[in-house]
Amino acid sequence: MSTTETVNPAREERGARRSSKTYLIGPVLALLSIPAYLVWLDVPQLRSTALQSFALMIAGTVISLMTLKTDRRRRAKGAAIGTSGFLLLGTGMFFFATKLPQPAGAPEVGARVLGFTLPDQTGQPVNLASLYERGLTLLVFYRGHW
Amino acid sequence: MIAVSVDAPSESRDVVGRLDLPFDILSDVDAVVVRQFGLLHPGGNPHGGDTTVPAMFLIGREGEVLWRRIAQRIQDRPDPREILDVIERLTTAAP
Lengths: 146, 95
Description:
The complex is a heterodimer of chains A (146) and B (95).
Chain A: H1 9-18, H2 25-31, H3 33-39, H4 44-49, H5 51-70, H6 74-97, E1 117-119, E2 125-127, H7 128-132, E3 137-141
Helix pairs in contact in A: 2-5, 2-6, 3-5, 5-6
Chain B: E1 2-5, H1 9-19, E2 24-27, H2 32-36, E3 40-41, E4 51-52, E5 55-59, E6 65-70, H3 80-93
Parallel strand pairs in B: 1-2
Antiparallel strand pairs in B: 3-4, 5-6
C-alpha cells in the first residue's frame, strides 16, 4: 500500500477551521462575568453597577458575533446565540429580578425617626435616642448575615 | 454608628467577631422596627422569612433625619466615601 499525500492548501485551511476553537472565546469571556462579580462584591461601586461583568458579557457577545464571519459551523452559531442570550438574561436579572419593594413611609430627610429599643449582639438593650443624643448617628439596616 | 438586622443576637455576635466590627448590631428578629421604618421586604430573607430593604439614615441630636439612602435593588450599596463626605459637610456646617 503506497501512501501518496498531496497537500491541498484549501483543504488544509478548511480542516484547520473545522478544528478551530476560536468560537469558545466569546462564551468563556461571558461566563467569566459571574466570578468577576463575586470577586469584587466588597467594592460598593462594582457591587452596585457590575461594570466588570457587563464589560465581559458584552465583549464575549461581540467576539462571538464576529467569529461568525469566519466560522459558519453550527457550534459557532450556538455560541453566538448563547452569549447573546446570556447577556440579555444577565441584564434582566441584574436590573429587574433584584428590584426591592419601595419603602412605604420611611422617614424622610427632616423628619424625626421613631424611637426604639433593641437588643445588641450581647443581648444588652440599646435605645436609639441614647445614641443620637450623644451626636451624629449613622443607622444602618442590612439584610442579614451570610 | 449602629446597625440593625433581623438576625438573632447570637448570629450578630458571630458577625461582629468574624469581621472584627467596631460597632454594635441590634437584633430585630420580628422585623418590628424594620416595619416601623417602612423598610419591610417580605420573604426577602435568604434564611427564610422577612428582612429589611438595605437602608442608611444619618440622624442628628434631635432625632431628625439629615441624610438617607434606601436601596432600590438588592445589590445597591452607597460608597463609604459618599457617606464620609456627607458627615464631613454636616459637621463643618453645624453652628
